[in-house]
Specification:
Elements lengths: L9 H12 L7 H9 L3 H25 L5 H9 L1 H33 L6 H15 L4 H25 L19 H12 L7 H4 L9 H32 L5 H7 L11 H31 L6 H15 L5 H33 L5
Helix pairs in contact: 1-7, 1-10, 1-12, 2-3, 2-8, 2-10, 3-8, 3-10, 3-14, 4-5, 5-6, 5-12, 5-13, 5-14, 6-12, 6-13, 7-10, 7-12, 8-14, 11-12, 12-13
Length: 364
């Protein structure tokens, strides 16, 4: 067994959540929620954030019952060895798929918008190689890397979206709750909640925190900050383009950055600056998913070291990322993985928490 190093602070935990959650979804979220609810897009984004917040709090409360163990370990104590092993396999499979499709979406955007002459395989493998290399470090270094990037992510993201408000039209935001209630709104809400699936990494962070009892506070600030950022992006994008135009744009937030113009040609290509910001957010998201994978596999196989797993996973994830033949097939797979992921990362932990309370096990 590895001796746990309780070196991660609550602030670092919050920054890990922020930089993990803010990622690839920034580009197409406005289109997703507008297609689901028209002008009610910001409203269902808020509802989705609230659902995600409650879900992560449930996961955190479960983790605090066993502050020195991850979900791979304590699930065995709750439901038994075989059910626990099955859940571990499903969980690891989910994050392999999440990492693969995130890397593929990154490659698709880069090949379409910036590196049109570069094969998509090259951009994907470079990102995965970076993630694999950095996951060879321990969780303390992992926390420092996230802590380093978060200020740049928030400052750049907020600045770019705020500056684009010069083209906003408030009438595009009405009616606030959309035109009518329908099943698509429910689907849109779950799509928003799915963006926060990366927050599941809290299950392996809690055992390494200096003060695990502050995990709830870290989750509050992490989810709230990321949630407010997403709501701001949706509101401003909707206010600039309106519902009908957003539905015709594949990546509305990227188009939003292209609308920015400052006096004196101070910033002529804001979209390049935005893509730089986006590349960093995608890296931190893939980095977190990859780190969860290697740590979960280490615990699943009861290994003392995770370093050899980093590059072992690389060809598997890369192979899966190349399965979609085009961008439409990619987003079809994303939708399937979204629903699968919600069940694995929300419903199962909720069931485990109920079982813990029934069994009266773990620390309160």
């Amino acid at each position: 067994m590895i001796k746990l190093q309780h070196e991660i602070t609550s602030v670092q935990t919050a920054t890990i959540l922020i930089s993990t959650i803010i990622g690839v979804g920034v580009l197409n979220l406005p289109r997703t929620v507008v297609e689901a609810a028209d002008t009610g897009g910001p409203f269902i984004t808020l509802i989705g954030v609230i659902i995600a917040f409650i879900s992560v709090m449930v996961i955190t409360k479960l983790g605090l019952r066993f502050p020195d163990q991850s979900i791979i370990d304590y699930s065995e104590m709750i439901v038994g060895k075989w059910m626990s092993r099955l859940y571990g396999v499903v969980l690891i499979s989910l994050f392999i798929m999440l990492t693969g499709i995130t890397a593929r979406e990154f490659g698709t955007v880069m090949s379409t918008s910036v590196l049109s002459e570069t094969p998509i395989e090259v951009t994907v493998i470079v990102m995965l190689l970076l993630a694999a290399f950095f996951t060879r470090n321990n969780l303390t270094t992992f926390a420092y890397i996230h802590n380093f990037y978060v200020p740049a992510i928030l400052i750049t993201g907020v600045t770019i979206t705020a500056v684009s408000m010069q083209h906003a039209e408030p009438l595009y935001l009405q009616p606030v709750f959309g035109s009518e209630l329908n099943s698509e709104m429910f689907t849109g809400i779950l799509s928003v909640a799915a963006i926060f699936q990366g927050a599941f990494i809290i299950t392996i962070i809690i055992p390494y925190m200096q003060k695990p009892e502050q995990a709830k506070k870290a989750v509050f600030w992490g989810i709230t900050t990321a949630g407010c950022f997403y709501i701001m992006v949706v509101i401003i994008t909707l206010a600039v383009f309106g519902t009908e135009e957003i539905k015709t744009l594949f990546w509305p937030t990227l188009e939003l950055a292209r609308t920015i113009s400052l006096p004196g040609n101070f910033l002529q290509r804001a979209d390049v600056l935005f893509l730089t910001f986006w590349v960093v957010t995608v890296f931190t998201t893939i980095f977190s998913n990859y780190m969860f994978l290697v740590q979960a596999l280490r615990q699943f196989f009861r290994l003392n070291d995770h370093k050899m797993l980093s590059f072992f996973l690389l060809p598997i994830i890369f192979g899966l990322s190349m399965v979609p033949e085009n961008v439409l097939q990619l987003y079809g797979i994303v939708e399937v993985v979204t629903w699968f992921g919600l069940a694995v990362t929300i419903l199962v932990p909720l069931f485990l928490l109920v079982m813990v309370k029934i069994q009266k096990r773990g620390e309160k």
